[in-house]
Amino acid sequence: MNPQGQWEDQSGTSLAAPILAREAAIVMQQLSQTACQPGSHPFGATVRAFLTLTAERPESGERIKPLADRTPGYGRADSSRLKNPLASSVVMIWQGEIAGPKDLVRVQVPVPLDWLKASSKPRLRLVTCWDPPVNHAISRIWACRRVSVHLRADPDSRGLRPQKKPSHHSYPVLDRTWRLDAFSTNAVAASEAWVVDLSCEEIAEYFASLDFTASQRVGVA
Question: The whole model's pTM is what?
Answer without folding.
Answer: 0.85
